[in-house]
Specification:
Blueprint: E1 9-13, H1 18-29, E2 35-38, H2 49-52, E3 62-65, E4 68-70, H3 73-84, H4 100-113, H5 117-126, H6 138-161, H7 166-185, H8 187-209, H9 223-238, H10 251-261, H11 264-270
Helix pairs in contact: 1-3, 1-9, 1-11, 4-9, 5-6, 5-8, 5-9, 6-7, 8-10
């Protein structure tokens, strides 16, 4: 796979972040060299001024490509696709959207991305009675349960003494976490998202039943595969797989996950 030079790429990311995992998978699949800089979300490193100078929203992933800074995983992958993936348009991570295959990849990716992964993630931490065989560490589980309250307190402390432009960043973060924090702890919201996710995966099962390649559409990976691999890996790690593909249910989804996790690039990106 011939690519343009990727010297100077710096990725600020967090291992527990599904959005970060998507970008790491794209970078590794495209064989791009990049400098990895981990941001400790549980310790609030994303709230430090040095990081807010890069990304005023205080979110990962963030990519620096020379003087260009990109702060959204979808925008980052689009940039990597446009600048560094030099294959034919129908073989790229994101095929030309005006073509039939490009439209199909975009539609399936949008369907997968409709799953609220953060609701599943925090719901599993707050309601472990709905999980089985989770591989999360105790530290990660405790960190997620404490995250909402800890971050709320931390942001308020920083906001009290902040000056522009950090004041605007802390206000944004406080509003966001105050609005969503209670929902993340609500068991009914979590159960509703499990149901919605099941409906999405039933539609993905249909797509996979018609696939003739290793991935959803082809023998090469697309943006839709990045999203699906990250989602299914997260579900399994959280111990939620029994809600979806236990006892022979969704067999194509189950075999897809087993298959792609044997791919070295995927395994390295998601571990």
């Amino acid at each position: 796979m011939k690519m343009s030079s990727s010297r100077g790429l710096i990725l600020y990311h967090a291992l527990p972040s599904s959005y970060s995992q998507k970008v790491v998978l794209a970078l590794k699949y495209l064989n791009l060299t990049y400098e990895s800089r981990l941001v400790n979300l549980f310790d609030g490193e994303q709230l430090e001024p040095w990081f807010l100078d890069l990304n005023p929203k205080g979110e990962v992933p963030t990519l620096k490509d020379g003087d260009l800074v990109l702060t959204d995983s979808a925008d980052i992958i689009q940039h990597l696709n446009d600048r560094y993936d030099t294959r034919r348009s129908d073989e790229k991570l994101i095929p030309n959207p005006v073509t039939p295959v490009g439209r199909s990849v975009a539609e399936v990716n949008q369907l997968i991305c409709s799953v609220k992964t953060f609701v599943l993630t925090f719901g599993a931490a707050f309601h472990p009675q709905h999980t089985e065989n989770s591989t999360l560490s105790d530290e990660e589980s405790k960190g997620r349960r404490a995250f909402v309250d800890k971050m709320t307190e931390c942001i308020r402390e920083k906001l009290a003494v902040a000056k522009p432009p950090y004041k605007e960043s802390y206000t944004y973060k406080l509003t966001k976490i105050s609005t969503g924090g209670a929902l993340l702890k609500d068991e009914n919201v979590f159960l509703a998202e499990l149901k919605s996710t099941r409906e999405v995966l039933e539609r993905i099962e249909d797509h996979l039943s018609r696939s003739q390649g290793k991935w959803i559409f082809f023998d090469h990976l697309t943006l839709a595969d990045i999203s699906l691999a990250v989602l299914l890996y997260r579900i399994k790690k959280l111990g939620l797989q029994h809600h979806f593909w236990a006892e022979g249910s969704l067999p194509n989804v189950a075999s897809y996950l087993d298959r792609v996790l044997k791919d070295p690039t995927v395994a390295e990106s998601l571990s």
